[in-house]
Amino acid sequence: MIIQIILIVSILIVGLNFIGSRKSNRTKALKKIFLVATIPIAILFIIFPNLSTKLANTVGVGRGADLLIYGVTIIIIFQAFDQYVNTAQEQRRTSLLVRKLAIIEAEQKKLASKDTIN
């Protein structure tokens, strides 16, 4: 029961992160905080493997390995969606840049053709 709540809340947090502003420093800071918090937890689970099983049993999962798989699944979903959103933003920026460049080139050609006529 507890693991279901944790997983649902985790998925909601990931989802809400992408609904909010993607360009903010707050979003970047939260990613860094998450990474910094994940590393010591991973090291603890490596040093004390039974700790993951105890934690898993506490939240209603049978084995520590299953709990780790749930966590990795959430991280993979987050990473995949983050990459998708970043790629879409880059494509929009590239399209805007190409449009502006095309307008500038068209204006230059127009001015050049007026100069040759006069």
Structure in words:
This protein is 90% helix and 0% strand. It has helices at 2-19, 25-47, 49-59, 64-117. The radius of gyration is 24 Å and the shape is rod-shaped.
Structural class: mainly alpha
- Mean pLDDT across every amino acid position: 83
Radius of gyration: 24 Å
Count of domain modules: 1
- The global form is rod-shaped
Percent of residues in beta strands? Answer: under 5%
**What's the count of strands?**
0
**Helical amount:** over 70%
**What sequence of helices (H) and strands (E) makes up the elements?**
HHHH
Give the terminus-to-terminus CA distance: 81 Å
Write the layout of secondary structure elements.
Layout: H1 2-19, H2 25-47, H3 49-59, H4 64-117
Helix pairs in contact: 1-4, 2-3, 3-4
Features:
118 residues; mainly alpha; 90% helix; rod-shaped
Describe what is shown at a glance.
With 118 residues, the chain is mostly helical. It is built from four helices and no strands.
